[in-house]
Structures are given as structure tokens and as C-alpha cells.
Amino acid sequence: MARADLLTSLVKFGVNGDNARFRKVVETIIAEERAKQHTVLADNLEKLLLYSEPKQVTNGTFSTLLTQQVDNLLHEVSPQKKLDDLILSEEVKQICREVVQEHHRTDLLRSYGLEPRNRVLLIGPPGNGKTSLAEAIAESLMVPLYVVRYEGVVGTYLGETAVRLRRLVDHACTRKCVLFFDEFETLGKERGDTHETGEIKRVVSSLLMQIDALPSHVVVIGATNHPELLDRAVWRRFQVRMDLPEPTRVRLEEWFERFHRRLDINLGYTPGTLAKKLYGLNFAEIEEFGATVFRQYVLEQPNADMKGIISRTLKHWAARSVKIEQKNMGID
Question: Which residue has the higher pLDDT, 10 or 217?
Fold first, then answer.
């Protein structure tokens, strides 16, 4: 049974004709009932909410659009990574703990007229843990992670993208979840950019309205490698902003210490030495390096020499790095 405060608000907003707040309360009830495994009730309420909306269908394109499956717009992930698995700065760890605690104690906050923060922006170069952090936050909240599929959201016809965006947000709102927009600048571009079309500007405006309307049980996380491209109004929508820079040597050393403990194999190199040799790589590349050497170690059993494997891999990676650098500089 829905909480008394939600039912009271439902009747209040319904009687007053406040459709926006009425919808938010219904979405919250659906999310809570779904969390209690009351899926039949939650599905029925979701259908009522969906089909009660007026549908402005003007041509075959929009008719097809309105029947599009949500699976084309979102990819659901069952979170496995934990916050403790990630190598983060103390500041980022503390912010994450605070946000998670707010959502675990929502009832207490609401008793004081407060809502948990639910809009998070992750900033930093690629390969340094933005997607992993979104997954870890979802795991800590014990909710699914919905990753936005841009290939399904971004359309070629006028108005398609905004309508699809509304559809995926409507779906997410009826569940307790983390809604993850990777490369957020794809949708949240600066509207003052003279090179952008009017369609992009309409999409940004629609996106901002969707973010504003999100109920607090939906945690929306945007990640960007190019914060300079984001619309200024987008920045104001996010209550929490976290920087995930490239790893320092200290962070890399910590990664190799964990790698050593996890495998329980003598690496032949100290974590500090490996961190020094591979300094400049991002966490994704370090993960790839670790997987490469461990894979080779397994294949060379029972006479595998981990130090020799790491030495060979280091030489290969050094040569690869030189080639990439020469390519970036235009040297054949």
C-alpha cells in the first residue's frame, strides 16, 4: 500500500488540477510498488499513466515513433561494480557516500520537507572511470542502471529526438533507477553555438525540462569528456559535480597493489615500478594491460613466468605508444 503522504498528495494535486505534480506522485508510487515486487500493480499504473496522455500523431513517422520499443532507447545493466572496487579521490568517495545515504534515508529527509539530490555530472577525460562510477552508484543504491542508447534516441526527422527522449524518461520515472547519459554533450550542447541547428537547440530545451521534471527516485548521471561544450543551463541542473582526472602515479601504484593482492602472484616488479613505467595511461588502459598479462600467464601454465610476461608486454606497449604518438603528430 502506498504511503499516506503520497496518497494525500495524489488527491490534493488531482483535485487542484496540478497535472505535473500529480504525475510525479504517481511515478513515485509506481517506483515504490515496483521496489516491493508489486509488479502487476506497478505495470497497471504505468499503463494508465502512459495512455492517459494526449498523443499528437500527425503522420506515419510519429505513429511509428510512438510505438517504438523502449529497449531501443535504453540498455539495462545489473550493477556489479562496487564503490570500494574503484580507485577514487577521498573527495569523490565522500560525495558518493553522501548521495547514497540521502537516498537510503529519503523518508527522514522528506519529514523535513527535503528531497535527496538526484542529478550528478561526472567530468573527465575518457577511460578514467565515469561509467564504472555510475554503475557503482547504482549498485550502492541497489537499483538497475539504465544506459541511454544514443543510436536509438537521436533521430533524423524534426522532433523525433525530443519525443524519444520524453519516452525514455517516462519509462525511467516509473522505476527506482540510475539513468546514465554517457557523452552528455551529445544532447546537452551549448545553444549559443552558431554552428548548431534549431533542432539541436530544441532538443537541449526539451532535455532541460525533462531533467527538471525527474522525480528524486531517479538518479540521473551525465558524463562528459568535453565540459566546455555543455550548455550553461545544463550545468545549473546538476546538484552534484565530480571531476575524475587521469590517474596520478600514486593512484596507479594503488591499482597495481590491488592487482597483486587479487591474483596473489609474484609480479616480479613492485607496484611503484609498474606505476612509473605506465604513468600517462588511463585506468581503462591499465585494466587492459592487467588483463593482457594475466591472460598470458594462464595460457603459459604450468611454467608461466609473470615477470617475463610483464617485461614483454611493457616493451610491446611502449612500442604501441610511440606509434600512436607519431600518428597523432602526423609522422609516418
Answer: 217
